Amino acid sequence: MRILDEDSDKKLDTVSLFLTKEEATQLQAYLRQLPDNPKLQHIHLSSSDYQKEITLCLYDQENLANLNQRSIKLINEDR
Predict the structure, then answer these.
(1) CA distance 50 to 13
(2) Which of 10, 16, 41, 76 has the most CB atoms within 10 Å of its CB?
(3) H-only helix segments in 1-79
């Protein structure tokens, strides 16, 4: 697991998420789809006003080609 704060470009080790019931249900549905759909590499869960967003990416350590360089560095070096 790797967590990146994209605004500050810093890795995080802990994070707290506060979701409404609807957001949790949506996240649950997205998470069910992610491992079973090879074309689906990431999902975006947005707040109802689109001011906040969680991006969840599924990655394979052996195949990072579709990720940007910052993401690859985070995965490989955890920094």
Answers:
(1) 25
(2) 41
(3) 21-33, 69-77
SS3 of 38, please?
Answer: coil
Phi, psi of 76 (to 5 degrees): -75, -35
Summarize pLDDT for 14-28 with one digit per residue, the tens.
Answer: 999 999 999 999 999
User: What element of type H or E holds 5?
Assistant: strand 3-5
Six-digit token pair at 23? 């957001």
Average pLDDT taken over every residue of the chain: 93
The pLDDT assigned to 63 comes to: 83
Cα–Cα distances in Å, from 24 out to 4, 18, 45, 66?
A: 21, 9, 10, 27
CA distance 78 to 19: 26
